Amino acid sequence: MPERLPPAQRAPALVFAACLLLVAGSAAVLFLLKLGAGPDAVREFYLGSEARFTSPRSLAGLLETALAHLVAMPLALFAAIHTVGWAGALAPRLLARLSAATFALALGGVAAGFAIRFAAPWLAWFKVVSFLGLEGLLVLWALLLAAVAWPPPRPAPRGARGELPVGGSASGPA
């Protein structure tokens, strides 16, 4: 069982975990609404579509989106990963692998937009896979963060000599 966070850190960590879930859910909705539900829709989003009268994404537009992501994502991921790691919720090797995968998917998702638009449109599948992988890992980090922040269960009340009270059980009153 991982260590728990000290009482003063539990509430902020739980709120942060809830915010990560909110971010993941919002990102999923925005991805579907703006980019679409598959590689073809993603490719069309970046390259434009004559049928839909949309222009290809500009370098300035891609940079504006990338900048916000390159600032916010590492900070949020670092905070979640650091807290989970400090609490000992995962073995060090697993923590390192999940951390590397999370940062790689985040960076890959940002870079994929540029690659689709300017180099290799067939990488639209990579954008979808990066996004889905990052979403799954965000949910995992939020759940791990909640696990180390959740208050521990209270011990069952014991009598003066350590026995359970009459009519009670270890799990509570009958």
What is the helix/strand order?
HHHHHEE
Please state the structural category.
Answer: mainly alpha
Q: Helix content range of the residues, please?
A: 55-70%
Rg of Cα set: 22 Å
Helical region count? 5
- Percent strand: under 5%
- Outline type: elongated
Sheet with most strands: strand arrangement: 1-2
Q: What number is the mean pLDDT? A: 89
- Low-confidence parts, pLDDT < 50 over ≥5 residues? none
Largest sheet: 2 strands, antiparallel
Question: What's the β-strand tally?
Answer: 2
Intertermini distance: 28 Å
What does the model show?
With 174 residues, the chain is mostly helical. 68% of the residues lie in helices and 2% in strands. Helix 3 (59-86) packs antiparallel against helix 4, helix 3 packs parallel to helix 5 and helix 4 runs antiparallel to helix 5.
How is this structure best summarized?
The protein is built from five helices and two strands, in the order H-H-H-H-H-E-E.
Please write out the topology.
Elements (H helix, E strand, L loop, with lengths): L6 H29 L3 H9 L11 H28 L5 H27 L5 H26 L18 E2 L2 E2 L1
Antiparallel strand pairs: 1-2
Helix pairs in contact: 1-5, 2-5, 3-4, 3-5, 4-5
Key features of this structure:
single chain, 174 residues, mainly alpha, two-stranded antiparallel sheet, 5 helices
